[in-house]
Fold this sequence. Notes:
The protein is of the alpha/beta class. Helices cover about 40% and strands about 20% of the residues. The protein has 10 helices and 9 strands. The strands form 2 sheets. A 6-stranded parallel beta sheet has the order 1-4-3-2-5-6, with helices on both faces. Strands 7-8-9 form a 3-stranded antiparallel beta sheet. Helix 6 (about 125-140) crosses helix 7 (about 150-165) and helix 9 runs antiparallel to helix 10. It is globular. The structure holds adenosine monophosphate. Adenosine monophosphate binds near residues 37, 150 and 176.
Amino acid sequence: MIIAETINEVRKYVKEQKMMGHTVGLCPTMGYLHAGHASLVRESAKRCDYTVASVFLNPTQFAQNEDLAGYPRDFERDCRILEENGCDLVFHPSVEEMYPEGFATYVEIQSEMPRQLCGKTRPTHFRGVCTVVNKLFNIVTPDMAFFGEKDAQQLAIVKQMARDLSMDVEVIGCPIVREEDGLAMSSRNTYLNPEERKASGILSDALELGKKLYNDGNDDAEAVTKAMSELIEQEPLARIDYVSAVNAFTMMPVEKLSSDALFALAVYIGKTRLIDNLRLS
Ligand code: AMP
């Protein structure tokens, strides 16, 4: 596995592969990898001839008050996980390589989609995501790019961006990988102390409750999300940011639940903000 720190190196290696007629897959990450990230890399290795993963803690998607400085890092461990799962090239740029002095161009979706859910408390987050993903697409020129359904709003936004800007890349969503108790894997789970870790099972419990109520014939989004919220409120360490039922493609709130809807939630467990979601199909 090759480790590249500059854009020029990545371009050189990718060009060699394309000259051989090979397809290229990209898995963008912020590092501190877990089995969720590994599943994206494996999917890329299965579907593409050459797999590139980026490990870049992107500052433009963090607001001033967020956890950029404390975000966990372990690049050596990341490389081991990437190599074991079939990655061919890791792109690990510095912040200066990605955002050189004078950088001033951002990509932003001008619809309601990025303003829903996480966009309410993180108003500049998706602008940072779109900008860095756009740059990564331009640098790596992948045939396919793999994103987790864990970040359902991000996936919907990246798909919209790729479509709107005629990007020659297939954006592929991969299923959420969970711990045994249902907690969605996340680099941020390492912030949780043992007591908080135990309490965090409440997120997937609430999603499962919502799905059960829907399967039992209750399609009133407000009533079902209220029941989910009430369950979460029983956990003393939990504080709700949002519990919503939205259309899986537009991220807009729905009144009636259907197979096109998903439950999405963001909940603080102690100081750690966790997100999760569940499709109703
Ligand atoms: P991150 O490093 O958190 O930016 O995540 C990088 C990619 O991995 C994103 O496309 C995430 O949606 C995806 N990802 C993160 N956690 C999971 C998970 N538990 N299951 C599947 N994909 C995930």
